[in-house]
Amino acid sequence: WAHRGLARVLAEPPPRRAFRLGRVRVDVGSGRVRIGAAAAPRLVERAVAVPGTTPLPEIGQALATRVVDAGGYATPTTADRVAFDADHLSMPIAVRARRRGDRFVPFGGPERRLKEFLIHAKVPRWRRDALPIVETAEGIVWVAGLRRGATAPITPATRRILEIALVPLADGAADR
């Protein structure tokens, strides 16, 4: 059975769905293989604390938010940190897993289906349900760790900035 399983992993095209080899689950996609006892965890929807830290224990990370003055603020250049004009971003903010039919307007780009965006970004299928999707009433504002949305950009008129960062979950942070 192991040889048949390896043949499926190496097949061209790769299998579109996860399969089991005995008690092991095998996911193949985007040039990667995930082997585990169960499916990857799906992120549970929850409100984001502003300011504060919102633990995401399913994925071992947290969203840290803070509101700062725009004067002298340096815009983040890494994918794990994003900034918005706090006065033009509606509240509350929520984080959740992707949903069927989600649409996303990336900063500087046209609206597209979230599914297409994740495929183009080469996010493996098994990671997509654990990827934090940050949203407001306007829709998706950040695909955490990948791309900022077009909502509430920072301009010269911006006075207050809301910064959101995807950080490792500190020990005991899930208790807060």
Approximately how much beta-strand content do the residues carry? 35-45%
Number of helices: 3
Shape: elongated
> Using DSSP, what is the number of strands?
14
Mean pLDDT reading: 87
Seen as an oligomer or otherwise, the chain set is: single chain
Residue runs with pLDDT of under 50 for 5 or more positions: 172-176
Order of helices and strands: HEEEEEEEEEEHHEEEE
Gyration radius over CA: 18 Å
Structural class call reads mainly beta
Strand order of the largest sheet: 4-8-11-12-13
Topology:
Layout: H1 2-10, E1 19-21, E2 24-29, E3 32-36, E4 46-47, E5 52-56, E6 61-69, E7 81-85, E8 94-96, E9 103-104, E10 112-113, H2 114-120, H3 125-128, E11 133-136, E12 139-143, E13 147-148, E14 160-168
Antiparallel strand pairs: 1-2, 2-3, 4-8, 5-6, 6-14, 7-14, 8-11, 9-10, 11-12, 12-13
Task: Please name the defining characteristics of this protein.
about 180 residues; mainly beta; disordered C terminus; 14 strands; about 10% helix; 3 helices; 5-stranded antiparallel sheet
Describe this structure in words.
- The chain has 176 residues and is mainly beta.
- The chain is 11% helix and 35% strand.
- It has three helices and 14 strands.
- A five-stranded antiparallel sheet has the order 4-8-11-12-13, with no helix packed on it. Strands 5-6-14-7 form a four-stranded antiparallel sheet, with no helix packed on it. Strands 1-2-3 form a three-stranded antiparallel sheet, with helices on one face.
- A hairpin with a 4-residue loop joins strand 5 (52-56) and strand 6 (61-69).
- The longest helix has 9 residues, at 2-10.
- The termini are far apart.
- The model is unreliable at 172-176 (pLDDT under 50).
